[in-house]
Amino acid sequence: MTGAHGPGTSAATPDPARRGTSRRRFLGGAAIGAAGLAAGAAAGVGLASAEAAPPVTAGQLAAQREAQTVPFYGTRQAGITTPQQERLMFAALDVTSTDVQDVQRLLGRWAALAARFTAGRPVSDSPGNPDAPPFDTGEAMDSGPYSLTITVGFGASLFDDRFGLADRRPAALAPLGTIPGDAVMKPAITGGDLCIQACADDPQVVFHAIRNMVRAARGTAVLRWSQLGFGRASATGAGQTTPRNLFGFRDGTNNIHADDTGGLDQHVWVSGSDQRWMDDGSYLVARKIRMEIESWDTDDLADQQRIFGRRKDTGAPLTGGTEFTPIDFHRTGADGVPVIDPHSHVRLASPEANGGVRLLRRGYNYTDGQDPDTGKLAAGLFFLSYQRDPHAQFKVLQTRLGKSDLMNEYIAHIGGGVWACPPGVRQAGDWFGRSLFD
Amino acid sequence: MTGAHGPGTSAATPDPARRGTSRRRFLGGAAIGAAGLAAGAAAGVGLASAEAAPPVTAGQLAAQREAQTVPFYGTRQAGITTPQQERLMFAALDVTSTDVQDVQRLLGRWAALAARFTAGRPVSDSPGNPDAPPFDTGEAMDSGPYSLTITVGFGASLFDDRFGLADRRPAALAPLGTIPGDAVMKPAITGGDLCIQACADDPQVVFHAIRNMVRAARGTAVLRWSQLGFGRASATGAGQTTPRNLFGFRDGTNNIHADDTGGLDQHVWVSGSDQRWMDDGSYLVARKIRMEIESWDTDDLADQQRIFGRRKDTGAPLTGGTEFTPIDFHRTGADGVPVIDPHSHVRLASPEANGGVRLLRRGYNYTDGQDPDTGKLAAGLFFLSYQRDPHAQFKVLQTRLGKSDLMNEYIAHIGGGVWACPPGVRQAGDWFGRSLFD
């Protein structure tokens, strides 16, 4: 793996001289002086991984988690294989300018902002002239970066006839065509010329990043839709436990992990495709999946487990063992019926049922309050997945799932999109997706 | 203060015998054995306060924060003076039954559930019959309580002619009448016969609590509206720093703190009112305050600071000093003009300008994605306040603010309500608000 954004990340070193202008503030005045502390905890992996580290005080630990940084510059974008952070804000924007240079300038501004925000710094070290609007909106002024990553992607619509980019559109960005169950996707929360995925271990930090990047787009692009994710619904780090989705199940047990370099090269990172500017990039497929949780909650436990193919309590497959025990799809009960229902979620989504196809999942649980029509909780999974080719991966899986997944009775794909996430911003002065315009 | 829910809270002691059925799981297998550790950190006060504690490992600390409990049973409800947790889910429900006994049974079920959830336990220790729906929805199955509190309130509409409670309605619950600026409150996100405020340091834990309590209401009450708060916007604990609102300012610097027993008795806890069942209760006034953040972001720094009456960076009053320096409202500049604008937010909301009136603020920043009409970020402050009498406190303050607060150009009160939060549930078998039905 050549990217800089594996599971190993570094804790920022406090620089007292910067404190006046930095967003980074150390709780209770705790200073992180010992390199051993910094090495002890891997960002986003959860605190459990630092158990072997030398003892630290509570104040130091809180400051350390807050100060944790994920490097922004690199061959590949962060926020894809980075051990998944706890909170998300996602935004899709439409370009309103018709000048490709405006788009380039925006991608440059965004890169400069992302470099600062991910280091825990505001839009500018200067608050600005008192007689002008502040450079930074300020709500994260006292906060460290909390492992913030900012990942940018390009939708298929960016390659229409507005910007002269039609011949740079990768084949992988061609429309996915009809997928069973997609008929109810709402245009207002689907697609967008550009997307930004901001992830961090603090929700105000991700909100601040999206807000200021949308603000920086004024005159060039406008917010089309956005989504807050309140809790991690996938594990991408080797030390992370599999979280539970809003059906109460551990979901994504067999996700590709950040330390599986071979799996990432095979399934996630683009190389040698028809558009070389996407080398070291990845394709994001997002789906806002509404869960009918009130209906689900009336289903019996045995049926819920049949639908998933796993036990609800332990996450173990119904064929036995623990959560990570390989699933025996061929096993039948005394009655000759397969123990794992052939239409269970775990089987239909498995590599075994899909010619080895896998995705890197990076989703979040969400709620938007209640549905105005039914009064039910409007909640579900904001599914985010990264892959080399949505046609060969997401579409294959979702066609199978959309057709016959037992879970379909309880879910609906109501929005989302596909974006080409270009390679990383390599250094200061570069833009997101510079290779696209070379 | 006679309630059990002051700033001092206790860390739950792990009980290995309960692990099979408890939601509480210890990250990385860390056990919290030392009483010294439990005493070292106060729940919700932030980790900084534990700096003087003996060193702990990162894994122990994470487990400790997750395992932290706030006692549920007590003279007064928790979640009012409890040091404010990081995340909120709030729900307003309407009673659909016309049988007062159904309401009583619901309040009993809720008390039993709240006792379990705040101890990190699921709806039942048994998953239930495989052929029946699981007792618990499961999404918090592996999680500790994270300082969860559950606070229940009764809206004025509960005292209409349906349940024979009309003569038990406190004068304090009478309609607030016309308050300047309230014209745009939307009925769909205003009011409700009952409310539940769930606060914890983890969002999935608060979601789980609300979801399962709404589920337990089936047949008796339905969800009317709900709100997720992503970040703490007030400080109520003595050791907590004042967080920033989405205008980027520290707001509520002079909030009543949990250690100010005299202030709480004077301003927050009901005693000796016309309805004795409300003794040791408090009135919640909630307001969903939409902030026009894009407009705010175009205002210059000097004007933003004039509107607040404080500096944006430090939170210090414009008359100088640090955040907690008393404000000199009488000071004038060389030009004879008051340094703090008489219509600034800090002056109009001050006890000095309102005959000593104060509130306990307990709000959260929120975002609902984007406004469908304008494409702007739909975000703001979910203002929660507790007081002895909304007429003598919130109404007085908001009448002044609604009339002439310079901030009004940038905010709108779009929803909310008033609820009478009864005294605490004293012991197992009691209900929320049992004194109301005695």
TrEMBL record, chains A, B:
Residues 242-425 form the Dyp-type peroxidase C-terminal domain. The keyword Cytoplasm does not apply. Its cofactor is heme b. Its main location: other. Binds 1 heme b (iron(II)-protoporphyrin IX) group non-covalently per subunit. Residues 1-22, 120-140 are annotated as: Disordered. Keywords: Heme, Iron, Lyase, Membrane, Metal-binding, Oxidoreductase, Peroxidase, Signal, Transmembrane, Transmembrane helix. It catalyses: heme b + 2 H(+) = protoporphyrin IX + Fe(2+). InterPro entries: Dimeric_a/b-barrel, Dyp_perox_C, Dyp_perox_N, Dyp_peroxidase, EfeB/EfeN, TAT_signal. It is found in: Cell envelope. GO terms for molecular function: ferrochelatase activity; heme binding; metal ion binding; peroxidase activity. It is an enzyme of class 1 (oxidoreductase). Residues 77-230 form the Dyp-type peroxidase N-terminal domain. Involved in the recovery of exogenous heme iron. Extracts iron from heme while preserving the protoporphyrin ring intact. Belongs to the DyP-type peroxidase family. This is Deferrochelatase.
